């Protein structure tokens, strides 16, 4: 919770100059607005609102339209439109107030949006306090706007422990360190949220709306992702490395600039369909004989048609796994690549969702 929380305005509107460029882009592509609707699968009202500027449209739809038109959305958006970043840094606990023997309130200084992300971080803090006080019944009764006022209900002993933590300064440290790992974010509206670099390992994101969210560098290992919406989410970072003209032998002793052909963007070579591609970190050794090891990063494409023999990310009865899918004797199997693990037979009682096909493995030496 110590890091700044960035909230991005979710609705955008194009500038007049931007619309002129968008109209020209349609001509260059040889399509009209109806053709753009069909290409994107968006409603007529969304496309109409974009070009008529009658009302702002949601951030992920705006950026998707611009990308399809080969335009940079930052150059198209109305500059006066509040695409502003509100950085809210939690500094410290300002006060603790005892309301009753079982109710207490403390105030966190600052001005914060009471959104799903803020609530999730506060919930993470409360979970830590439950462990410290030994009171599993400790719960949030209310969260109030402004400088956030959190009202907690718990045993008198637990509240007394929290008071001691406040007096010693330890409560402030807990507030600053609270994270989202293991947090319950099921069904949360995190669209457009800045989650770059966030520790979401083990978090329950089932049914959460992450459309347009920045997840670049986020740790999603062990997270529950059933039914999560990722449309328009940023799942990767962009970087370029030198590309050498000649293949390297077992003793390339120098680093001569003359051999550099140019720079390559690994995303362009590893990610063929950015809008349907995501990264996932490997946990476990069930696929080690396929060259997939713990902590490897898998590049997964949801747009590829699944066929027997491919390595896939599958959601089996609510749990994510990476396995090779096989169709054998009219039966579907998820096969490990490690003899210590048993195959998973898929039958009529199995809740199976294929999340995508693994296209590449990123393995550190």
Relative helix content: 10-25%
The CATH architecture of the largest domain is Ribbon
* Class by alpha and beta content: alpha+beta
The counted number of beta strands is: 17
Shape: flat
Major beta sheet, strand line-up: 11-12-17-13-14-15-16
| Strand/helix succession | EEHHHEHHEEEHEEHHEEHEEEEEEE
Uncertain residue ranges: 1-9, 81-92, 237-257
* Domain count: 4
Q: Give the integer mean of the pLDDT values.
A: 73
Descriptive key words:
4-stranded antiparallel β-sheet; 434 Repressor (Amino-terminal Domain); 7-stranded antiparallel β-sheet; Gyrase A, domain 2; alpha+beta; 4 domains; single chain; 24% helix; 9 helices; 365 residues; flat; disordered N terminus
Question: What would you say this structure looks like, in words?
Answer:
- 24% of the residues lie in helices and 25% in strands.
- The protein folds into four domains: 8-82, 434 Repressor (Amino-terminal Domain) (Orthogonal Bundle); 90-177, Gyrase A, domain 2; 240-270, no CATH class; 274-362, Ribbon (Umud Fragment, subunit A), CATH 2.10.109.10.
- The strands form five sheets. It has a seven-stranded antiparallel sheet with strand order 11-12-17-13-14-15-16, with no helix packed on it. A four-stranded antiparallel sheet has the order 5-6-8-7, with helices on one face. Strands 1-4 form a two-stranded antiparallel ribbon.
- The model is unreliable at 1-9, 81-92 and 237-257 (pLDDT under 50).
- The longest helix has 18 residues, at 116-133.
- It is flat and about 70 Å long.
- Helix 6 (116-133) packs across helix 7 (156-168).
- It has nine helices and 17 strands.
- It has 365 residues and is of the alpha+beta class.
């Amino acid at each position: 919770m110590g890091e700044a929380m960035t909230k991005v305005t979710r609705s955008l509107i194009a500038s007049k100059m931007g619309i002129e460029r968008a109209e020209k882009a349609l001509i260059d592509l040889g399509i009209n607005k109806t053709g753009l609707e069909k290409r994107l699968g968006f409603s007529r009202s969304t496309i109409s609102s974009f070009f008529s500027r009658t009302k702002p449209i949601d951030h992920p739809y705006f950026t998707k339209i611009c990308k399809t038109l080969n335009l940079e959305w930052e150059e198209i958006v109305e500059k006066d439109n509040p695409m502003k970043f509100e950085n809210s840094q939690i500094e410290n606990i300002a006060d603790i107030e005892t309301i009753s023997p079982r109710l207490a309130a403390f105030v966190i200084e600052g001005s914060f949006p009471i959104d799903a992300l803020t609530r999730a971080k506060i919930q993470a803090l409360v979970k830590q306090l439950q462990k410290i006080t030994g009171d599993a019944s400790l719960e949030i009764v209310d969260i109030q706007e402004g400088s956030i006022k959190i009202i907690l209900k718990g045993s008198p002993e637990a509240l007394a422990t929290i008071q001691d933590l406040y007096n010693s300064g330890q409560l402030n440290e807990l507030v600053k360190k609270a994270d989202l790992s293991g947090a319950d974010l099921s069904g949360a509206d995190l669209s457009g949220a800045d989650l770059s670099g966030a520790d979401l390992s083990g978090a329950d994101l089932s049914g959460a709306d992450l459309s347009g969210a920045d997840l670049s560098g986020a740790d999603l290992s062990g997270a529950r992702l059933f039914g999560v919406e990722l449309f328009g989410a940023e799942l990767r970072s962009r970087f370029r490395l030198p590309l050498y003209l000649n293949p390297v032998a077992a003793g390339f002793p120098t680093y001569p600039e003359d051999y550099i052909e140019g720079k390559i963007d690994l995303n362009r070579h590893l990610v063929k369909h950015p809008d349907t591609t995501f990264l996932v970190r490997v946990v476990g050794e069930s696929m080690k004989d396929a060259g997939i090891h713990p902590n490897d990063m898998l590049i997964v494409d949801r747009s590829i048609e699944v066929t027997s023999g491919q390595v896939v990310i599958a959601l089996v009865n609510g749990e994510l796994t990476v396995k090779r899918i096989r169709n054998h004797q009219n039966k579907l199997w998820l096969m490990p690549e490690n003899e210590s693990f048993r195959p998973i037979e898929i039958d009529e009682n199995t809740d199976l969702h294929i999340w995508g096909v693994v296209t590449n493995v990123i393995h550190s030496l």
